[in-house]
Amino acid sequence: xxxxxxxxxxxxxxxxxxxxxxxxxxxxxxxxxxxxxxxxxxxxxxxxxxxxxxxxxxxxxxxxxxxxxxxxxxxxxxxxxxxxxxxxxxxxxxxxxxxxxxxxxxxxxxxxxxxxxxxxxxxxxxxxxxxxxxxxxxxxxxxxxxxxxxxxxxxxxxxxxxxxxxxxxxxxxxxxxxxxxxxxxxxxxxxxxxxxxxxxxxxxxxxxxxxxxxxxxxxxxxxxxxxxxxxxxxxxxxxxxxxxxxxxxxxxxxxxxxxxxxxxxxxxxxxxxxxxxxxxxxxxxxxxxxxxxxxxxxxxxxxxxxxxxxxxxxxxxxxxxxxxxxxxxxxxxxxxxxxxx
Length: 341
Known about the structure:
Structural class: alpha/beta
Strand content: 5-15%
Helix content: 25-40%
Number of domains: 2
Order of helices and strands: EHHEHEEHHEEHHHHH
Number of helices: 10
Radius of gyration: 56 Å
Shape: elongated
């Protein structure tokens, strides 16, 4: 893409130069020759490129060489102060104004880009800035809700427009010089004025309020049955561990033969068969005296780990009629024991 060649007079806030920068090619188009002959009051020779260059530069550098790029119908008052009337003509006269967007040519290039560059006049820039401040910004603030930095944003919006309208340079094809009139004035042809109007309207930005703040909602994860014990509830409020409930039938009665080494409440009948339980004989000469402590606890049983035994109700079928006297060792001594009694 060729570089954009613009003179210093096209910069923002730069004054108008005394001479227009004109660049012509080695061959002059016939339409340019006819245009220059039409606008010149005094006939001048136009037989070479330097003669065309000199004539065009003098015409465009004239103080009266002001072009009307477009005309914009803009409101005079903010929307809240507009007058309402049954006659549309009266309403338009009191509520709207016509601003002519005028500019002067700062650059003509017929070699690289074949374009003409226009810069707005100081009067047009001042009129557009005043409209933006008194009407556009007021409507923009009235159309948005209040927030803490609204005035600062509106002020910045106006300052940005001032910079943009002073930097505004409209470029169009060199064929626009066909609309050249006497003393260098002219108007844009072929519907280009509508394009200028859209470009200037695009510089008037709306006042955008800040987006609403998004509040993060912290949701607790659902407590599923498969969740581990150390969930967020147990970690947040730890509670002291409670002892497991002890069934009543596991509690051992107090007995002198029970030692302090018993640390488990496991039942004593875990590994004991009914055939191992021996009752004492009637006389001390045959067996040891009968003691009920052996049925409940012994030191040899407490020394080894004892697995859990089912509930006593599960042993009921074994303690029924099928258990005879032979299971308790009474088959051989029952007669002797009965005689002693």
